[in-house]
Amino acid sequence: MEASAAQKHIVIIGNGISxxxxxxxxxxxxxxxxxxxxxxxxxxxxxxxxxYIFMGHMxxxxxxxxxxxxxxxxxxxLKKAWVKTIDTDQKILHFEGGEKMQYDKLVLAxxxxxxxFGWKGQDxxxxxxxxxxxxxxxxEKYAPTIRQAVIVGGGLIGVEMAEMLMTxxxxxxxxxxxxxxxxxxxxxxxxxxxxxxxxxxxxxLRLNTELKEIIADKNGRAKRVITGNGEEIxxxxxxxxxxxxxxxxxxxxxxxxxxxxxxxxxxxxxSISEVYALGDCAERRVPVKNRRPIEQVWYTGRMMGxxxxxxxxxxxxxxxxxxxxxSAKFFDIEYQTYGVxxxxxxxxxxxxxxxxxxxxxxxxxxxDKTTETVLGMNVFGIRQRHEVWDKWIKxxxxxxxxxxxxxxANFDPEFFKQYERQILIKYxxxxxxxxxxxxxxxxxxxxxR
Length: 449
Ligand SMILES: Cc1cc2nc3c(=O)[nH]c(=O)nc-3n(C[C@H](O)[C@H](O)[C@H](O)COP(=O)(O)OP(=O)(O)OC[C@H]3O[C@@H](n4cnc5c(N)ncnc54)[C@H](O)[C@@H]3O)c2cc1C
Description:
This protein is α/β, with parallel strands linked by helices. The protein contains eleven helices and 25 strands. It has a five-stranded parallel beta sheet with strand order 3-2-1-7-19. Strands 9-16-10-11-12 form a five-stranded parallel beta sheet, with helices on one face. Strand 24 (about 360-370) and strand 25 form a beta hairpin. The chain starts with 8 loop residues before the first strand and ends with a helix. Bound molecules: flavin-adenine dinucleotide. Flavin-adenine dinucleotide binds near residues 247, 297, 298 and 328.
């Protein structure tokens, strides 16, 4: 613990994973005074679990990772309020209610907001995104009066919203601008796999279809959408899930340099001294190799928080993430991705793709055309070990090596069907090779390394 340094007031705007991880780690490392502010909820909750409240699997108290007494015990002061403006010269925050707060060091962890692209009718009653707790409350409010919903924008949050609505027997039409689901992220085959899966779940999926306008009834509530093709779809609810963007509108006059997000260097420092930003709202001036400048996922917020706490407590530390990974669920199919797999191959890249006969399970491995080293992978329906793929990509293993050792990465329970042999046969057949599986799955694999 940093005992000698003078006590500072560290103020954190945002009580999501980024802000809270920063606060917890600053407390572990120092005696600084810490205040965490949020206008959304009094306590930190797991945003990724919001859907389970709506679906009745959990209550709000279950998605709060810490008991309410935790904060006082750890001397982390909480304030539920919206910050309206920041005076970085005087180091003062101005709240919506007129109050002020002085800080020594300021951390911006303000997250994202749902995108709205200026559609006519986007602010009507019954039209909303799914990001914050208030969105969940609004969905609860409208749900009993919804028979038919339209969701606009095919991504992970859209699928969650569809799944939520369908548990209340609401019919869902999904408008997706691209020719496949999540077409800006997933390669063609995976996008088509997810599209088929959504159709199987009775979602009325309309590909190559954009929203043009939302029409109101006489009370100002959505009653119909008109698509770019001129088709009219009756509905009582419109979900806007066409991505999220950094929640930084209130910073426009602050003098802090902004682009799409709050611009930061590798130490998460903004353009203003003693002001830092992290998580969904931060944008790296110089992105880390193979990573995007803005990363809107849970684990990056947590990792940045751990790193920033070091800097705030006097040990300046750069945020240097390792290989990219992400995971999600499309109804009942699990998806994992490691390293670099983009929707379209780059010039120096090649790919190997295998899909099971049932069209629900697949594996893609992208590799460098010249060196044949593995660059990244996508998998649907087979659970994979993070540490194995991370190591294979980091240590630049060849695709042949990876194919021969695939069982080693398999994390499914022992009794699950295994596909590595099928994958190997397809690979050998396509490439005219005679590779053989060299590893066994599970404990044997670990013992025989
Ligand atoms: C439905 C849903 C499902 C998701 N599922 C996954 C998943 O499966 N895996 C994954 O990796 N990621 C997932 N994400 C993304 C993940 O939740 C975010 O990347 C993460 O929560 C961002 O954390 P954060 O702390 O940076 O910001 P946030 O969690 O957004 O926290 C920011 C907080 O700051 C508050 N705030 C902002 N401005 C002000 C202000 N002016 N005054 C006061 N308070 C302010 C906000 O109200 C908010 O409470 C999901 C997101 C959603 C919405």
